[in-house]
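Standup notes
- HV: blocked on the assembly model, inputs below
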Amino acid sequence: MVRLEKRPQASQAFSWAAPVLAVLATMVFGGLLFAALGKDPLASIATIFWEPLFGDFAFYYRPQLLIKGAPLVLIAIGLSLGFKAGIWNIGAEGQYIMGAIFGAGVGLAFYPTESVLIFPLMVLAGALGGWIWAMIPAVLKVKFGTNEILVSLMLVYVAEQFLASMALGLLKNPEGFGFPGSRNLQQYPSAHNAELITGSGMHWGVVAALIAVIFAYVLLARHRLGFAIRVTGEAPRAAKFSGVNPVRLVLFCMGMSGLLAGLAGMFEVAGPAGQITIDFNVGYGFTAIIVAFLGRLHPIGILLAGGLMALTYIGGDIAQSQLGLPAAAIQVFQGMLLFFLLAFDLFTNYRLRFGRAEVA
Amino acid sequence: MKLSTLLASAALAIGLAGGAFADDKTKVGFVFVGPVGDGGWTYEHNQGRLAVEKEFGDKVETVFVENVAEGPDSERVMTQMALDGADLIFTTSFGYMDPTINVAAKFPNVKFEHATGYKRADNVSTYSARFYEGRAIQGHIAGKMTKSNIIGYIGSFPIPEVIRGINSAYIHAKKVNPDVEFKIVWAYTWFDPAKEADAAKVLIEQGADVVLQHTDSTAPQAAAQEAGNVITFGQASDMAQYAPMPRVSSIIDNWAPYYIARTKAVMDGTWTSTDTWDGIGAGMVGIGEITDAVPADVKAEALALKASIADGSYHPFTGPLKKQDGSDFLADGETADDGTLAGMNFYVEGITGDIPN
């Protein structure tokens, strides 16, 4: 007989081992999946994990990892603060969109004026856009007790409609022959979030993501607010007795995650993406939820997890074109990662017992 | 070192390596916006890819990446294909326009073909199909077949391509049935079976007994089948599984001849940057079989219309035509030029409702 037994205390070691085991299990079962599809499993796994980092064209893919990973890390850091305190912002995708619209809107309003002030203004606008969009569910929660999971998620779809409207109307490129999509900010120097060193992939969004990691680390480890977040998540009753104000905590956590998601959207639209289009959002806000959990809601963990997710995306695309793997197989592969993580997570709080249950 | 220098030297290295190994295979890459199994837009582009493989056999190697998001992801996928030695890359969605131009600038020796866009370069061609020619035939059949005189239209996004189709269908429905009325629902998606089904149901509830769609899934066909006595047309792909009713005909994107010709041009070294906009005549737009649900005389008229468009004797946008606001669009006998068609952002007279923006 095998059975699960609750650990007297959550295992620290397992909490950190689970992501590593999950990655290994994903490689094994992903390899089996690829083999079943008639591809060489070792070559497939190697293409996904090795090629972008150390392959022939790593000089191109390594910077791409930063570009792909930065928005994931930036959003996930914000989400992790709320998740730690049991505040569930599921609508980062919408906040990301609103940040992009606000940021691009401010930039385009100044077109074609050139000034060093435009970009900082866009950054502020992007942060504000995401913050406002997150404050809607936050205020509704603290005022009327609505469920922030549902409200924030629904607002994603509202934001998507807003995005389509902007791409087709207000922000449409007047020189675009009637086609949807805004002017390309990459061709507007004052508003362009260009690479800081050409070819490095380092743009302001990457810098912001790294700053966010440090900021979150300090906040959680050293600041009173960080203590309030941790204690609320771990022991809500104790938090109440220690004088944590739950209303302020909800407003802070939702606001901060919205702000960071908005920044991510703004840096993306001003840099790698360049323009507001109908399909501007590609799911970073949702993927960041996986990144946050894969990184154990810990800032350093999130940094690593963001890099790992970016790696599977980039490696996955390479595997598609070089080996002919279908996109669906890559998505299953990425899904396995979360699945195995959740499965191994169980062992943080439980352990396996072999043998018969003792008679009480 | 600058990235462009690095990329150029990498490309050069590949070129040299290619020469050293006497690798005479032409490598053709395809970037797809949806899954190859979508049954519509991407499916047909992939059929074109398969046709290239079949035509040239061992002399070509094709690669593709599906489900590529527009924006930086597409730019990376294109760069990756170019680095891996592609000679020709087809980028098959409007949103790939700026990324295609960016990547093409870094790889001057790789040829790029962008579908449905308007930006070109020395190594970037554009191509699209005159789907509005097929819409004219749909409009004719729809106008003849409707009993309620209400024709439903599921629009994707209010862009020139879609508005052109609506106008073309309306003009030809009106021509054979002056009482006809168009109801237009915007789905704001190219492919979302749930939304498309909802749109079709709304239109059918409002009395439409013909539903035209500019979205790619078969969900509207299923909704029409359920309602009974409603006819539809396949979009992008034949959707023959819904024939003979509700699907009575279809517009089929046929990219194979173009893809084969362009691949051949790269092999022969005769490739140049061009802007192609072909229709029924060149075979880029196919009209799926008109089923027996359509009376024989209507079918004959539709086929005659198709023939006249194919041989160029008739243009679907021939005056006299007025715009929705009553201002003049085309004088008697005048035909619309390609520039006007490409940027069409107005309805013709008679269509009610506003184009959302």
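- HV (later): unblocked. The mean pLDDT of chain A is 91. The first helix of chain A runs from residue 12 to 36.
- Next: hand off to the docking folks.
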